[in-house]
Each structure stands twice: as C-alpha cells, then as structure tokens.
Amino acid sequence: MLSEPERPGILALYRFLNEVDPTQAKLGLHRVATYTGDFRWLCKHHYDAWQPNIPDVMGPPRGPRGARRGGGGGASQEQL
User: Is a pLDDT exceeding 60 seen at residue 71?
Assistant: First the structure.
C-alpha cells in the first residue's frame, strides 16, 4: 500500500508514462496487479519473472507437507 507522501509521486509517474507512451508499446513496460490491488510497471525481464510458472506436466496430487498420497515410500507399522 502507498503512504500518503508516496501517492503524488506515483500518480505523477503514471501521468508521465501515459504522456510519453500512451499505448505502453515504446517503453516496453507491463502493468501487473499486486495482491494488495496496486499496480506495478515492470520491464520485460522482471515481468517474465513475476509470472507464475505453470508446469508442463502435472504430477500426482500431494498430501500434507508435500508427501505423496497413496502407498509406498513410508515405513509401515510393522517396520516400526
């Protein structure tokens, strides 16, 4: 969240970016929403890092603490 002293500076930056590059094509900045509802302007490098990585292959579901569900891998009661 922005503090009251930060707000005018951010609004001035936003106006400047819209004047210089109204379509956001020349500067190469990407606007992304944060979890607080604010926006960030990121270059291509940081925009790519901001995006969540979606796995190419989905693995089997995992249980609590990352343990795989189902049998195998753990010690049985007989072994303890």
Answer: no
